[in-house]
């Protein structure tokens, strides 16, 4: 996420940290790089110009130039301006005090609108009873796709009856069913096109007037950059959007749409799609996004992933081991399983607040087969061997290799990686922040 922009910012602030005090020339050179970084990220030209001028006005003040830590102050200024650019606060979706609450999803075809409707339903299902309504009647595949998604997440579905072509009638029938099925949240998927046309805009306008939604959410593909911003402008002018959902944000190396939409349209980004799975939807948090852009990590996001992956029993067991300054192969097995649940390791590493972590793993990819092999090797050991790896000598290693369908060499590699993980846990436990380097013994995890 935002890899290109993050790399450019790292270079800019690295050059500033090497200076005892800053001159106006130092600031101007740094801001020129910031400007180029934002333009390359496909941020709107006027937005970039205003952003740089605001930073320049604050960064060339006497308090900054005469400070003993000017680079840190410039860093803080850029961070604050990024927050202002994206909107400082998380803006959760509204819930009507008088149910049902209605969300209307709009957007172009191919933006991920139908899938996003289901993602929102799943997210809201924890505290509400949502219903998915198919009002994209010109594309039969969209109706069937929403029906299948509704079934997969276990929420009610309303679609057109045979021969029905009026989306307003479908929406009204769905609203009538709410009381009998105790639904308190209606999510309506509307028609999409490959490009904006008058017929599309009129259809969604009429539907909006009929159902009077509490939220009108535009779904856009974040990887389309300025095109996404242009689409948001048109939809906002015609419909009055309450929020934007950015899809494919996990694959967006530039970040132009995320940084520009709020500044250009005044409409906040409310949610972000961060994967293809139906559970891959997050609240858009400007603070966390700014931290990641500036290489500060995402501790909150990391903790959320850890909490989702770890059971209370596993957490207690690992905590007890750490208290006793003990790390066994059984603990390593627990961690390997948690890592697989947390998703791609390179994405997890990006969240660490350790300078250079993402850069160290820029081209690294975790080999899922290698982790499965490691799991099989540990499971082929006896409980005594897992607790006391030092007793695993030649004959035991051959037996373990045969039992796991691997080789003695792979068993040796795992035992070496186990020792490296012990050292790594000790380092993180002491709060090491000197920079990140992949331990030699753990490089076998990467392709």
TrEMBL record:
Entry superkingdom: Bacteria
Coarse class of the protein's main subcellular location? cytoplasm
- Function, as annotated: Involved in targeting and insertion of nascent membrane proteins into the cytoplasmic membrane. Binds to the hydrophobic signal sequence of the ribosome-nascent chain (RNC) as it emerges from the ribosomes. The SRP-RNC complex is then targeted to the cytoplasmic membrane where it interacts with the SRP receptor FtsY.
The chemistry this enzyme catalyses reads:
GTP + H2O = GDP + phosphate + H(+)
Its recorded name reads Signal recognition particle protein
Q: What is known of its domains?
A: Composed of three domains: the N-terminal N domain, which is responsible for interactions with the ribosome, the central G domain, which binds GTP, and the C-terminal M domain, which binds the RNA and the signal sequence of the RNC.
- Gene it is expressed from: ffh
In which family does this protein belong, per the annotation? Belongs to the GTP-binding SRP family. SRP54 subfamily.
Keywords in alphabetical order: Cytoplasm, GTP-binding, Hydrolase, Nucleotide-binding, Ribonucleoprotein, RNA-binding, Signal recognition particle
Give an example GO biological process.
Answer: SRP-dependent cotranslational protein targeting to membrane
Q: Which GO terms describe its molecular function?
A: 7S RNA binding; GTP binding; GTPase activity
NCBIfam families, per database record: ffh (TIGR00959)
- A GO CC term attached to the entry: signal recognition particle
**Positions with a binding annotation for GTP:** 107-114, 189-193, 247-250
Q: EC?
A: 3.6.5.4
Give the matching InterPro entries. Answer: AAA+_ATPase, P-loop_NTPase, Signal_recog_part_SRP54_M_sf, Signal_recog_particl_SRP54_hlx, Signal_recog_particle_SRP54_M, SRP, SRP54, SRP54_GTPase_dom
Asked whether the UniProt record includes Glycoprotein among its keywords, one would answer no
Compartmental location: Cytoplasm
Which stretches make up the SRP54-type proteins GTP-binding domain? 268-281
Q: Which Pfam families match?
A: SRP54, SRP54_N, SRP_SPB
What interactions and quaternary structure are annotated?
Answer: Part of the signal recognition particle protein translocation system, which is composed of SRP and FtsY.
């Amino acid at each position: 996420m935002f890899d290109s922009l993050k790399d450019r910012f790292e270079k800019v602030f690295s050059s500033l940290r090497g200076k005892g005090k800053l001159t106006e020339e130092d600031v101007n050179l740094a801001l020129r790089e910031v400007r180029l970084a934002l333009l390359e990220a496909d941020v709107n030209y006027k937005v970039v110009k205003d952003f740089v001028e605001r930073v320049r006005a604050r960064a060339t003040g006497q308090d900054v130039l005469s400070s003993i830590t000017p680079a840190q102050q410039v860093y803080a200024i850029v961070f604050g301006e990024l927050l202002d650019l994206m909107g400082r606060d998380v803006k959760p979706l509204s819930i009507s005090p008088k149910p049902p609450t209605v969300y209307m999803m709009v957007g172009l075809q191919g933006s991920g609108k139908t899938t996003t409707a289901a993602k929102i339903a799943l997210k809201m299902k924890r505290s509400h009873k949502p219903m998915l309504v198919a009002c994209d009647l010109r594309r039969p595949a969209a109706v069937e796709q929403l029906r299948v998604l509704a079934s997969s997440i276990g929420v009610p579905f309303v679609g057109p009856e045979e021969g029905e072509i009026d989306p307003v009638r479908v929406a009204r029938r769905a609203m009538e069913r709410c009381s009998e099925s105790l639904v308190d949240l209606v999510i309506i998927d509307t028609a999409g096109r490959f490009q904006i046309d008058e017929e599309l805009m009129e259809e969604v306008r009429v539907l909006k007037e009929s159902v009077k939604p509490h939220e009108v959410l535009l779904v856009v593909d974040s990887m389309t950059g300025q095109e996404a911003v242009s689409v948001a402008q048109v939809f906002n002018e015609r419909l009055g959007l309450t929020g934007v959902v950015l899809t494919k944000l996990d694959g967006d190396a530039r970040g132009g749409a995320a940084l520009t939409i709020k500044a250009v349209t005044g409409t906040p980004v409310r949610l972000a799609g961060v994967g293809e799975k139906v559970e891959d939807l997050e609240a858009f948090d400007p603070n966390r996004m700014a931290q990641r852009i500036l290489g500060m990590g995402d501790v909150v996001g990391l903790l959320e992933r850890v909490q989702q992956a770890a059971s209370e029993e596993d957490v207690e067991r690992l905590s007890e081991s750490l208290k006793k300054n003990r790390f066994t192969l059984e603990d390593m097995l627990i961690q390997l399983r948690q890592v697989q649940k947390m998703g791609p390791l390179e994405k997890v590493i990006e969240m660490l607040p350790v300078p250079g972590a993402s850069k160290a793993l820029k081209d690294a990819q975790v080999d899922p087969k290698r982790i499965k092999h490691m799991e099989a090797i540990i499971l082929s050991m006896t409980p005594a061997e897992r607790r006391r790896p030092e007793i695993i000598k030649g004959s035991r290693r051959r037996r373990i290799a045969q039992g796991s369908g691997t080789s003695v060499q792979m068993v040796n590699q795992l035992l070496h990686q186990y020792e490296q993980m012990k050292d790594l846990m000790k380092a993180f436990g002491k709060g090491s922040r000197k920079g990140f380097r992949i331990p030699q013994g753990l490089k076998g995890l990467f392709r």
